[in-house]
Amino acid sequence: MASAIVRPLWGLCNLLLDFALPPSCAGCGEIIDEVGAFCPECWRKLEWLGNSGCQRCGLPLAGTEAEVCGRCLAAPPKLDRIRAAVAYEEIPRSVALRLKYGRKVALARTMARYMAPLKGEWGDKTIIMPVPLHRWRLWRRGFNQSALVASELSRQWALPVARHALRRVKQTKPLKGLNHSQRRKAVAGAFTMRDPFAVKDKIVVLIDDVLTSGSTAEACARSLRKAGASRVELICWARVVRPSQLMR
Ligand SMILES: [Zn+2]
Ligand SMILES: [Zn+2]
């Protein structure tokens, strides 16, 4: 039980330490002027995605495609829109891993800083929702990295966060190496609504750190839609853009 208290405290110490030290690049650690930013060299190495690509799934469009890609036209995904700040390459991966496993909680602010410009024209019936962790994983890690990012975005976008409306009831094994239908099966029934009224007729903006195949977010979207959400979008820090990376 003690570790449940020590772990969040450890994160807090890390955060305080990050504020006490001069600002450093979130990629390489080089001293820079701004807190939570990247040095020019790391900045150049990042593949910024923003609002580009398919207006539904966010993946790069082929030359002949208009606003929505052929895959989404043929089989519309459960998510109405997916966007990510950057492509999942070496630096974004390291940022995500240091936040999650290195407890560098200040990096949640870095992620949010670059995700904030992806705000849509959602209107006031909009809520932000971090992709939930299973309670065992939350207990082991001490925090949900996506919830930290969601809190930061909530402040910047002036939108409420629904932290507990959706619950992860199934602990899923890592989806690495599975194909699309195996991933879908693995996350089926992983989420249930704890508070369906919180999402009824709302636009729900799911927040996650990394998007690989999208199966987890799709499973969330399925539950949210069933509970009456009018639209479900996903905004994440980094996403796998090339399908070849999925099997890694
Ligand atoms: Zn750097
Ligand atoms: Zn698409």
UniProtKB/TrEMBL annotation:
Residues 158-238 form the Phosphoribosyltransferase domain. CDD domains: PRTases_typeI (cd06223). It comes from the Bacteria. Signal peptide: none annotated. InterPro entries: ComF/GntX_DNA_util-trans, DZR_2, PRTase-like, PRTase_dom. Residues 16-73 form the Double zinc ribbon domain. It holds the Pfam family DZR_2. Belongs to the ComF/GntX family. This is ComF family protein. It comes from Sphingomonas brevis. The lineage of its organism: Bacteria, Pseudomonadati, Pseudomonadota, Alphaproteobacteria, Sphingomonadales.
